[in-house]
């Protein structure tokens, strides 16, 4: 029996607000084509023909997230930072509906404060932070999880990162995959999964725009695994109330 679910190419859409790369020379040097282009390269190099990958950005009509485009997306990646407030209610509603119906979502770094992530979590999703180019050690705390498939070490490190520290104001994650330790002493739940409706959500902390995080091979590996993990399941989502017959009437 063929399982279409796993033989059809995975349809990935990478969304980036695409602002820092245009205004900050440091960011432009690291990501001349935009952060989304680097994420796309990383995913394409790992997933090859098993995925089709497109990009969308904030300044496109409807932020590049038309109904048709979302309807043909299996997994949406989200990078935003300085323009969260420019994402309209209509698009937040639309993306949320697609996630509830089964589309996967991978929220990156400062996307913790995006309107869509806050909507899905129902909390402020705030945290402590410091930008001091310090070392981050990402401990794998769920080594059997598909998101860390193929990673045999117990941790990996990024030499220079922006620090995010607890308390991270999110609901209790369904699963923790990574906990980060920083040279300055803080810790952070840096890889968390959630389900909302039929949709799978992965929040992954690394990705500050002034460091070459999305060129890092381990990061690319995690993102490719996350895309595959977040693929919609085969079941049918019923997101409506239904009034049903009273079975007791037949029994009296
Ligand atoms: Zn940052």
Summary keywords:
25% helix; nine-stranded mixed beta sheet; 9 strands; single chain; 252 residues; alpha/beta; Rossmann fold; binds zinc ion
Question: What is the strand and helix layout of this fold?
Answer:
Blueprint: H1 4-7, E1 10-16, H2 20-23, H3 25-30, H4 35-47, E2 51-57, H5 67-71, E3 75-79, H6 89-100, E4 104-108, H7 115-121, E5 128-140, E6 155-165, E7 175-182, E8 187-196, E9 199-204, H8 217-229
Helix pairs in contact: 4-8, 6-7
Bound molecules: zinc ion (ZN).
Zinc ion (ZN) binds at residues 109-110, 162, 208.
Task: Indicate the CATH topology of the domain at 9-124 and 190-238.
Answer: Rossmann fold
- The spatial strand order of the largest sheet comes to 2-1-3-4-9-8-7-5-6
Distance between the termini: 46 Å
Beta-strand level of the residues, as a percent range? Answer: 25-35%
What is the overall pLDDT average?
95
Radius of gyration: 19 Å
Largest sheet: 9 strands, mixed
CATH architecture of the domain at 9-124 and 190-238: 3-Layer(aba) Sandwich
Strand elements, count:
9
Q: Which structural class best describes the helix and strand composition?
A: alpha/beta
Low-confidence runs = none
Order of helices and strands: HEHHHEHEHEHEEEEEH
What binds here, in terms of ligands, is:
zinc ion
Helix content: 25-40%
CATH superfamily of the domain at 9-124 and 190-238: Class I glutamine amidotransferase (GATase) domain
* Approximate shape: globular
Please work out how many helical segments DSSP would assign. 8
Name of the CATH class of the domain at 9-124 and 190-238 = Alpha Beta
